[in-house]
Amino acid sequence: MKHIPRKRFGQNFLTDQLVLSQIIRAIHPQSGEVMVEIGPGLAAMTTLLLDALPQMHVVELDRDLVTRLKKNFPPEKLIIHEGDALKFDFSSIPLTPGRKLRVVGNLPYNISSPLLFHLADIAGIVEDQHFMLQKEVVERMVAEPGSKAYGRLSVMLQWRYHMELLFIVPPEAFDPPPKVDSAIVRMIPKAEVLDCAQADLAAVVTKAFSQRRKVIRNCVAGMFTEQQLTGAGIDPQSRPETVALEQYVNLARMLTHSTS
């Protein structure tokens, strides 16, 4: 029975075999690795991954798809976690000593940003992440200071990960075709992150990018003085999208110090 893609779950199923092969080559699964796929859908990528893996985990919200997965894969081969990936505790997946989690998936566009932030909380137990996302989102993730795409998502994720846009996937590779291009991104957690409190960095960045057209002095007025901005290595007349990650980290440290 054909599964009808559900709009509320943001379902666009990848069907192009050449693109699927390209993604598998990028992931390069190896026997013995602990792999979890978010939103396996009709299992196009799952099936190819299991050619290299004796077992893997998947997180799937759609009950109809869960039923289909249970029917098509033995439980010792595919461990299915039924539920919302935004609420799923990825740290609950068992890891043997010395192993880290590899995370893959064609992420629903409507929850991509909150899901990326949810996963950032477990970056310490993750080896790498390979995701299909809306091309515009990936461009924001990897954007450098000075570009229009650089913003809150860029700073917060670049603080935790090395990221690379691998290749673009056109709409016709999916059923149904989305209205936008997609892209594959590789995310590797940094061995060492710049030392600052995540909550304070998030507060600074959210405030800074709340009024992009204004200079940063005006954006963070009430949080930092002009003298503090200069002390963090920032020109008060510069715009938020030109301020580097390291400078935002400097501000986060100042915020922590001022509230402690």
TrEMBL record:
Its main location: cytoplasm. GO terms for cellular component: cytosol. It is an enzyme of class 2 (transferase). Signal peptide: none annotated. GO terms for molecular function: 16S rRNA (adenine(1518)-N(6)/adenine(1519)-N(6))-dimethyltransferase activity; RNA binding. Keywords: Cytoplasm, Methyltransferase, RNA-binding, rRNA processing, S-adenosyl-L-methionine, Transferase. Its EC number is 2.1.1.182. Specifically dimethylates two adjacent adenosines (A1518 and A1519) in the loop of a conserved hairpin near the 3'-end of 16S rRNA in the 30S particle. May play a critical role in biogenesis of 30S subunits. NCBIfam families: ksgA. Belongs to the class I-like SAM-binding methyltransferase superfamily. rRNA adenine N(6)-methyltransferase family. RsmA subfamily. This is Ribosomal RNA small subunit methyltransferase A. It comes from Undibacterium oligocarboniphilum. The gene is rsmA.
